[in-house]
Amino acid sequence: MANDNTSASSGQKSGPSTEQVEKGGLGRLAGWCYDHRRQVLMGWLLAVMAVIGLAQLVGSRLDNNFALAGSPSQQAQDLLTSRFPSEKGDSAEVVLRSGRPLDDPANAASVDRLVRALGPLAHVSGVQSPLSPGGAQQLSADRRTGFVVVRFDRAAANLPASAVLRVIATARSFARPGLAVELGGAPIEQVVSATPGSTEMIGLLMAVVVMLVAFGSVVAMGLPVLIALVGVGMGFGALELLSHLVIVPTFGPDMMVMIGLGVGIDYALFVVTRYRQSLAMGHPPRDATIVALATAGRAVLFAGSTVVIALFGLFVVGLGFMDGLALATIVAVALVLLGALTLLPALFGFAGSAIDHLHIPGLLATPSAEGGGGFWGRWSATVQRRPWTCAALSLAALIVLAVPLFSMHQAFSDAGNDPTSLTTRQAYDLLAQGFGPGFNGPLVIAADLHGPEASTTVARLDAALRQSRGVRSVAPPLFSASRQAAVIVVYPTTAPQSVQTALLVGRLRNDVVPQVVAGTGVTAYVGGETAAGVDTSTYLAGRLPWVIGTVVLLAVLLLIVVFRSVAVALKAAVMNLLSIGAAYGVVVAVFQWGRLGGLFGTAPGPIDPWIPLMMFTIVFGLSMDYEVFLLSRMREEWLRSGDNTKAVSYGLVSSARVITAAAAIMVCVFGSFVVGDPLRILDVFGLGLAVAVLVDATIVRMMLVPAVMQLLGTANWWLPAWTQRAVPRLALEAAVGTTRQRGQTQPVVVEPVQ
Question: Which partner for 62 in 163, 250, 598, 634 could form a disulfide, CB atoms 3.0-4.6 Å apart?
Fold first, then answer.
């Protein structure tokens, strides 16, 4: 966060020696990177090429494994894997749709040739035709829709992409007028994805426009973009390597790019802003670099660390894919932060005083040490004259936006959320049309058989399942070779993401299955991909309050240490929760309720359960950045004057421009994923982050916070006397003064007096 104020210690004319100029860790780092700029630049280039080259050599291992260890669905899968060895690999469906019955002679011949062509392919362990004696369940009632089951010898994540692509190409070669051929299933979804849109380019172009308006200089604009691109490029390679160690979902790299571009440009923007201010004050480029890192660099380090700490809270969730998502985001934030603190000072060495030379006529912004009056001065006066009105209007707006979140339904996205151009989505739709919506998410009842009446119990269970409300059809029980296990496939009447399907899973587990197997020695588990999604969604929804509570508590304690105020810390936590709640509400209204859904090109559906968790940790970290930047200016004036009204006004006026520019960049980057990315989950995530940042930087920081702080008065800065010594002192930014050494003015970095 750029330090717009440089007057805290400007009166110092003597004191520390020249050597003390760089005594701070970041000041020393800035001077070293500036002096060794060629080595730093070469080191970064070699590191990026090495990481990306190694990643290309070993490839990636992305895996959409959302299973919850120890859950009933996982117990069912473990039982099937141990008792049905032939079922250990995943299967795919080749869906066929014809205007004539599939058992028509011409269609039957095509189906037979298709089955024979798929059988010998690599990693295919078996193929079952809908026209075979055991394939009755694979043919629709009108006999015009059917599917060929292709079983692989490995799980989807372990299959070579080339083998799956060969299956797809072979199957699709049988398509002809009058016979549609589409493919679905976990192995197909692992290799088939939407063609990347112009998301990143749209976000970059919009960010460029914002920074050109803010700086008016092409060079000053280009440095933050370059830092973000270098960090994201290296992050891409690092994430591909890490995917061999942890579970990284297929959308993990896209999310890493989204976060990396947003925070990378923002962090570099803060440092560049402070560097230009130091140049305008007469410091030579090297000294300006030291000042920028010692002030804005420290704040950026704090901001990035806050986001990373919040993301570490996701590791307590205990799910592999959540660890992968958290790690992807941490990698993005850490690398762009490292670039802002090392590569950027080196680039200042190349740019020097020419950072504003390539400027846009009429747009070049003149750096100033402090924010002046202007619009933000008038706005601050308005808010402070009518604090009750502004606070009430702000709260009303946030509450209205947040209301929809109370009806949030969480469930994992499936092929039904894929773009309509993909074969996975077309296969999903064909199965729903031919067999009913529930056919895309069958439930698998796995039974461990013990006791003399095991077979009879399975028969009674089969009958009870057929009579259960919400069940469309039930496949005949299949016994293992040892007769020690059985599996029954149940097809619901509703779609996999439906609330009714989740309720059906609960009824089968709590009522139907226990009533049949009680006292028989048979143990049965309700599993399958749909049940696994229900288990994980329920688990994540239950973990959300714990993650929120932990992160908020840590944030409050940190803010108390930084600002030595109870009211400021509690207020900041509440404000952050309000902005996140508003973002949740907008996401539910758009993507679950379908409001403005046509504008985003998506059909109504549930919210993926990992999104609220990820949104909270990232948004809370970013909100803390803006909060700290705003409050640090207010506290600075409070310590200087003891006047709360002046402190609120100074903090708002001096920080508004940078907060607005930084937020605008993040909104552009996050929002571009909504309009440019074909994946629904990234649309949801992008909109949520964009709304959260927009609301936080406007309604909350520019209106609600100053209004509430005006109303609280001196209570803002209250800290119980008994905690004065117990609470440690932590300064976010060093103050910068000057000293005369050998006839020259040198910047002196000192700790601010608390």
Answer: 250
**Cβ within 8 Å of residue 4, ≥6 positions away:** 277, 368, 369, 370, 371, 633, 654, 655, 657, 658
485-492 and 471-474 as β-strands: parallel, antiparallel, unpaired? antiparallel
Q: How remote is the C-alpha of 742 from its chain's centroid?
A: 53
DSSP, collapsed to helix, strand or coil, labels residue 478 as: strand
Residue carrying structure tokens 């939407």: 194
Q: How far is CA 664 from CA 203, 430, 566, 638, 658, in A?
A: 11, 43, 30, 29, 10
Cβ count within 10 A of residue 191: 18
Cα(207)–Cα(269) distance, rounded to whole angstroms?
Answer: 11
83: tokens are: 């008792």
**Contact present, 409 and 178 (Cβ < 8 Å):** no
C-alpha distances in Å from residue 333, one per residue of 33, 52, 130, 256, 612: 20, 18, 50, 9, 19
Determine the pLDDT at residue 492: 95
Tokens found for residue 76: 């069912």
Query: Residue 463 class from Cβ within 10 Å (0-12 exposed, 13-18 middle, 19+ buried)?
Result: exposed
DSSP secondary structure letters along 194-217:
PPP-SHHHHHHHHHHHHHHHHH-B
For tokens 């910068």, the residue is 736
Q: What is the DSSP string of 65-122?
A: ----TTSHHHHHHHHHHHH-GGGSS-EEEEEEEESS-TTSHHHHHHHHHHHHHHTTST
Distance, CA of 111 to CA of 178 (rounded, Å)? 13
3-state secondary structure of 495: coil
Residues 184 and 149: beta-carbon distance below 8 Å:
no
398 and 582 in contact (C-beta within 8 Å)? Answer: yes
CB atoms within 10 A of CB 550: 13
CA distance 307 to 326: 11
> Among candidates 132, 130, 134, which has minimal Cα distance to 142?
130
Query: What pLDDT is stored for residue 87 in this prediction?
Result: 67
Instruction: Enter the pTM of the model.
Output: 0.82
H-helix or E-strand spanning residue 489: strand 485-492
Say how many residues make up the chain. 754
DSSP string, 564-629: --HHHHHHHHHHHHHHHHHHHHHHIIIIIS-TTHHHHT----PBPTHHHHHHHHHHHHHHHHHHHH
**Sequence-ordered list of residues with C-beta below 8 angstroms from that of 88, at least 6 positions apart, any chain:** 81, 155
Contacts of 140 (CB under 8 A, 6+ apart): 146, 434, 435
Helix (H) or strand (E) holding 400: helix 387-402
Per-block mean pLDDT, blocks of 10 residues, the chain (754 long)? 36 37 72 94 94 87 80 91 79 94 93 95 93 87 94 86 94 94 91 65 76 76 89 89 86 84 85 86 90 85 83 83 88 92 94 78 52 76 93 95 93 84 92 92 92 90 95 91 91 92 95 93 92 92 86 82 82 88 93 74 82 88 78 81 89 83 85 73 88 91 90 86 66 50 46 39
HSE of 394, CA atoms in CB hemisphere, 13 A? 24
Convert 168-189 into a string of H (helix), E (strand) and C (coil). HHHHHCCCECCEEEEEECHHHH
Q: Rounded to an integer, what distance in angstroms lies between the CA atom of residue 540 and that of residue 325?
A: 14
How far apart (Å, rounded) are the C-alpha atoms in residues 269 and 213?
13
Q: Which two tokens stand for residue 219?
A: 């060079």
CA distance 463 to 76: 20
Strand partners, 479: 486
Compute the distance between CA of residue 87 and CA of residue 151 in angstroms, rounded to an integer.
8
Candidates 530, 437, 171; CA nearest to 428 is 437
pLDDT confidence of residue 9: 36
Residue with structure tokens 């992409």? 161
CA distances from 228 to 256, 264, 338 (A): 12, 4, 10
Tell me phi and psi for residue 120, to 5 degrees: -80, -5
